[in-house]
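Kindly inspect what follows.
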Amino acid sequence: TVEKGFVEGHAIEEGKFVESVGGGISQFATTLFNAAFFAGLDATAVAAAVVSAARHATTVINTDVEAVRLPPRFSRSDAAALLASARSATARPLAVDAAGTAAEVPTRTLRHWLRAEATPSGLRLAVDTETAVHDLRRLVPGAGEQPVDAGVEIVDDAAVITPAVDGTSCCAAAAGPTIAAALRHRGALPIDLPLRHQPANRTTDEVQALGITEVIGSFTTRHPAHQARVTNIHRIADLVRGVIIEPGETFSVNGFVGKRTVEKGFVGGHAIEEGKFVESVGGGISQFATTLFNAAFFAGLDIPEYQSHSIWIHRYPRGREATLSWPKPDLVVRNSTPHGVLIWPTYTGSSLTVSLWSTPFVTGEQTGQTETKVGNCTRVRTERTRHYLDGRTKVDAVFATYRPAEGVNC
């Protein structure tokens, strides 16, 4: 700062010459750096001083050795030779193979990995292992076997834990030295990359501790059979089946399933957009949203995000239903209990059931409903009372707003 006696001078900031208070002090830094670089303790002198001091020591050896100017271990020609070797070793891409997944590491990437390593016999090429492993994971992302998280399946009306299975992925830390050795002695064949152990995210013991043992909430909705929308209902049920909402966590249907597309197995079906019936890929999955909504309602879980259909569809409970679209509206369920909650949908050709499995902690029941006019529309308030096993009760409500007819705004 100016207060410390500095003035403006030339400096470099973000690759450009500028004027800055204190500009020029890099000259001091460079000079100090080189003074420290070439100064050190001579190992032979230190050894002799320690031996001499030890002859007169009792319990502590004290000695004093002055720093001297030390010559560099490696010369400019050593560095030039290493550079030439590096250019030759990386003149072409390096073929690699990770458990049957082949790839080529580009020359530019290889050179980004290279480092000089000092050895007793001189300088040699080395590889920055951390950078190399990071880049290799992007080059061969599918290598190895993906781990499988522990989960829960319902078999013969009983919750059965499916154990976790650890996997492998690219690449282990040994990949760095392996690549360095291959670059020093280039061969024609791809080099085999070592895989790293990839543990499952959710262990068998962790699932056991979640206490998923019985049904805490279930709901069934019905629909006509043999319609295109039934394909979509079954598809989303298959995707969500087996999801576990851990204590305190939330489950977003849109966040988990993503946009409904033909590639994901969805087809065209009836949907409501801006108060009008239309055809849309994934149309009909609101049947799943409504069924899950009601299962969570009666299980006493939190439903922090939902939206009713803008037109009431008579096969759904009035005021107690939800719709889905991409990216909004979404349906989000929060597990506000101390136990895990398993979502387990099942279906027939004309019905859908969503059952929630856990350890009993709270139940919900509808204890009231009122309707009020909002312009041309009707606002429905559905009261829920939650009963906890410890004797507490809580009252909350869900809401729906319905147009009187297609295309009529509030």
In short: Residues 311 and 405 are 7 Å apart (CA to CA). The chain has a mean pLDDT of 90. Residues 76-89 form the longest helix (14 residues).
